Amino acid sequence: MTDSYIRRSLRQIKIQTSGLQQKYIPVLLSDSKGSFIKREVTNLDELKIETADAAIYIWLGAESIEQLVHKAVISLFLRISKDPNSIECKIGIRQLAKKDDKSNSWYINVDKTLKSYDLPSAHEIILNPEKNWKRLTHDVIDKTWKNRWIEIALSKSTLNYMEVNNLNFKKPNFCWSSVRDHIRDVSKGIIKSRILTGTYKTQSITNRFDETKSAECKLCMVGPEDYKHFLVKCESLNCVRKIHHNRLKSLLEDNHIPYCSMINSDEDLLEFLIDCSRNNLITVSQQRDLERICKDWIYALHAKRAQLLENK
Q1: Mean pLDDT of the chain
Q2: Cα(207)–Cα(209) distance, rounded to whole angstroms?
Q3: For residue 21, how many other CB atoms are within 10 A of its CB?
Q4: Which of 179, 214, 246, 293 is the most exposed place for a label (fewest CB within 10 A)?
């Protein structure tokens, strides 16, 4: 899909998007589609620029610009096809019948877009306007992009602990949607989001990009500092960890949830801390309270780690 095609389409339609996307669409068209929205989200929420594209869209529950443009273009085409007596519809029928795929016609580009999703051709749609094409086309487009992001996310080792299968466009990951409207909680949400998207830099991650840097934990000097070590095992952080571990056990007990039914190992605890929405045993209301403890746990360890490293 060429930029000129997108530009012509946007001149004819008004895309209803979130404030962030709506604000930056004009600039986006002169840049690469995916990387632009990624940079804006990165700057907004202080994620690292190395964040995988799939992580951004799943974390925000956002539709990609290309996805939004495709849906809007097809919606415009469907509105045109609903009025067979209009000049636009007659032009469309003629161009779809006479022009080939090499044409730069807007209608031919719409046809290519439909075919890219294995949808009925533009010619078939314009000759059968009475069908409910909008629901069909939008559902297929959303499903295609959802599967694309999930497939990419599952291939990224940095996203092993993020729940990706429940991707819901327009609904952010619970880690972010549960953030309350004050600075302290936003700070906790940012640190948790970096862990969730695999961009919080521990020694192990630093070593992955620069082999001259040791992967060994600088606090306890026992083994590589990966997320499991940082969040669950590092003895230098035990005093902080114990406080929040007791809070977690107490909350589970108050909700009559056996601790061992959810957490049987360090790996289980790590998964729970990073994304408790992966667990199907807890309700939405319980999840909110548990997520708050997980954010507090991670942020407290982050603050203590920074303090200890500064004093070394």
Answers
A1: 83
A2: 5
A3: 19
A4: 246
Q: CA-CA distance, 10 to 69, in Å (whole number)?
A: 8
Joined together, the tokens standing for residue 135 give 């629901």
Handedness of CA 8, 13, 15, 19 (dihedral sign): positive
Reported residue count of the chain is: 312
CA contacts within 13 A on the Cβ side of 109: 16
Rg of the chain on CA atoms, in Å: 24
Share of the chain above pLDDT 90, in %: 49
> CA-to-CA distance for 266 and 291, rounded, in angstroms?
18
Over 60: is that where the pLDDT of 8 sits? no
* Owner of token pair 């636009």: 88
* Rounded-to-integer distance, Cα 167 and Cα 28, Å: 24
Q: What is the mean pLDDT of residues 248-255?
A: 90
Which one, of 120, 294, 122, 308, lies nearest residue 217 by Cα?
308
Other CB atoms within a 10 A radius of the CB of residue 118 amount to: 8
Residue 37 clears pLDDT 60, i.e. is over it: no
Residue 224 bridge partners (DSSP): 216
**pLDDT tens-digit series, residues 142-189:** 999 999 999 999 998 888 888 888 888 878 888 888 888 888 888 998
Over range 129-142, report the average pLDDT. 92
Output the CA–CA distances (angstroms, integers) from residue 40 to 24, 34, 36, 45, 174, in the order listed: 9, 10, 6, 9, 21
- A 10 A CB-CB count for 95 gives 17
